[in-house]
Request: fold
Amino acid sequence: MHMFDFSEQLQIFNQFSQYFDDILNTTINYKTLSDIQQGIHSYMVILLESILNSLNKNIKVKNVTLLIENCIELSSYSNNSMCCLSASRLTATLINKYIDGDEYNFLIDKLKLNLENYLNLSSLNVHNVIIQISWITKSLSVKGHGKMLQWIDWSLNLLADPLYGKMMTQCFKMLTQTDDGYLNKECFCTVKLLYRQRIFCYVIEPLISRYNTMPEPVKENYLVSILYQMDGNTYVTLSPYFSKILPLLLQLLSPEQDYVLQSLQTFRNLLESKTPVLEDYLQSFVPKLLNLSQSSKFMNIRIVALQCLYNCCDYSLIKLLPLKKQVIFELTKCLDDKKRLVRKEVVRTKSRWLSIDVLNDDD
Reply:
C-alpha cells in the first residue's frame, strides 16, 4: 500500500477540501435540510473521513471545532448507518489529532452535554448517539486526554440504563480493540503506551461491584463489559483482580447461562497462556467443562469446552491425576456426539488426558 508523504497529503487536502465547504465552513442543522441535502451531506462526510482519517496532524484543518460539531449532528440525526459510523469515527479522529490543551476542555464538556440531551430526544436513533459516545470515549482514552476518566465514568453509568445500557457494552469492547484502520499511530493519532491496561485497572472494580449490586437484567451489561475487558488484556494485567473475576466466570459455566460461550472463550485464552492461578481452581471448573461438553445444545460451546479441557493438561501432574479418571470417563460419553467436529475434538482431548502421565514425566 502506498503511503503518502506530508507534501502529497497536503496537496490532496488542498485540492479536494473545496468540495466539502458546506461541512467544513457552515453550521449544519440536519432537521432543516431537504431530503436531497440530507443525502448529500450523509455521503459527503463518508468521503471526507476517507481524506482526513490518515491525514498528518501537522496539516491544520480550519474550523475544526465547527467540523466536529457538524459530524456529531450528522452522526446523531442521519438514518444512513454508514454516515453515522463515518461521522462518529471522524469526530474521534479530529478530537485525537487536534483537540489539545485546557483551552479545549469547554468543547469536550459541551459535546458531552449535547449528547446527554440527544439521549433524551425521542426523535433520535439512540443507537447512533451511543456509537458517537463510544468513539469519543475511545479517542480520549487512546490519547490519554484529561477528560478521559469523566467520559469513562459516564459510560459506566450508562450501562445501568434499561433502554440503552446493553448498547453501551460495545464501548467497553471498543476500548480493548485495536483497529488497523482508525485511531492508531499509522493514522497519525496519539496513542499512549499501555492505555488498555490503564483503562482495565480503572474500570474493573466498579464493573464487578455494580454487577454484584445491580438488579436483573441491568447487571448483565456489567458482566458483558467485564468479559470484553478481560479479552483485551493479558494475565499480567488481570492477575491482581483474578480472585474477584473468577467466581463470575465460574457462574457462567453452565448450559443455561446466556454468556457461556464468551466466558468459555475467555477461559480458553487464559488456559492457552498457562495462567498460573487457574491451576488452583481445576477442581472447580473441570467438572463444569465436562458438563458443557455433553449438555450444551450448541456445537460451538461443546467444542470450546473440549478445547479448554485439552489445554488443562498443561498444568502439573499432581493437580491433574485426581481428575484423570473422571475426565476420561465423561469424555467417552461425548464420542457419540452427532457432530463430527465435536467427535474430532473429543478424540484429541481424550488422547491428551490419557497420556498426561507420560508427557508430564518427560517434561
Q: What stands out?
A: The chain has a mean pLDDT of 90. The chain has two domains: 1-233, 248-362. DSSP finds 19 helices and no strands in the chain. The radius of gyration is 25 Å.
